[in-house]
């Protein structure tokens, strides 16, 4: 069982029967906080996956830049689509992590107020199947249903956007692709322009050694001219 499966499966253990009165000191008082900690750990896992998506996005952008510089427009489009997909994946993972973390906070509030109800257990009956398939859309739906249980506690902060609308989408908007290509091309163009300026400056500005060689050649010619003039004068005498 993965961390995400275990964390959300543990929500089933949270019910009115598992929460003892404040005056009692039983194992259940320790179990519920542990379940909440597991849910929070799941949110951290999703945040780590989002960080990896960020790195992957940068890699795709670097490939896009090289493709643009090489003049491979079709390959550049593929890399641009990959970069945008990774960007969307990162955003959706962050949103879902935020929702799961919010659920953990709301459960903690309900535990403190001793107002967790058995209906919350019914809400998560299909959670195991969603976790086994890692179906983020189903997980998001369960989160929607779970959040409604806390309306009476006044701790729900509203609904977030669906966490997987475009997380696994292959197609990306053409406008986004074109915009990213132009952005990277502009950045690459500036860098290429700067490199060309430096190269031109190096070729147009004579080096110090070259100047010395030119100066030595001039002195040599003058010396030969003086010798020739002296020799001609001697012959005339």
Automatic annotation (TrEMBL):
One of its GO terms (biological process) is vacuolar transport. It holds the Pfam family Snf7. It comes from the Eukaryota. InterPro entries: Snf7_fam. This is Vacuolar protein-sorting-associated protein 46. It comes from Erysiphe neolycopersici. The lineage of its organism: Eukaryota, Fungi, Dikarya, Ascomycota, Pezizomycotina.
């Amino acid at each position: 069982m993965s961390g995400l499966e275990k964390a959300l499966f543990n929500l089933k253990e949270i019910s009115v029967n598992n929460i003892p009165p404040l005056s009692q000191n039983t194992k259940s008082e320790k179990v519920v906080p542990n379940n909440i900690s597991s849910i929070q750990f799941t949110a951290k896992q999703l945040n780590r996956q989002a960080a990896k998506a960020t790195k992957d996005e940068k890699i795709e952008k670097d490939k896009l830049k090289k493709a643009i510089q090489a003049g491979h427009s079709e390959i550049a489009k593929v890399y641009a689509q990959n970069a945008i997909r990774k960007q969307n994946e990162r955003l959706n993972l962050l949103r879902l992590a935020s929702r799961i973390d919010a659920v953990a906070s709301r459960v903690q509030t309900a535990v403190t107020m001793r107002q967790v109800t058995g209906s919350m257990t019914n809400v998560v009956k299909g959670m195991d199947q969603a976790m086994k398939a890692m179906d983020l859309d189903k997980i998001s739906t369960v989160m929607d249903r779970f959040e409604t249980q806390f309306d009476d506690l006044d701790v729900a902060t509203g609904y977030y956007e669906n966490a997987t609308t475009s997380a696994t989408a292959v197609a990306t908007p053409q406008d986004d692709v074109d915009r990213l290509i132009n952005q990277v091309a502009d950045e690459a163009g500036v860098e290429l322009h700067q490199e060309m300026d430096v190269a031109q400056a190096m070729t147009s500005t004579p080096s110090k050694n070259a100047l010395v060689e030119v100066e030595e050649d001039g002195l040599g010619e003058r010396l030969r001219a003086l010798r020739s003039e002296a020799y001609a004068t001697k012959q005339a005498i």
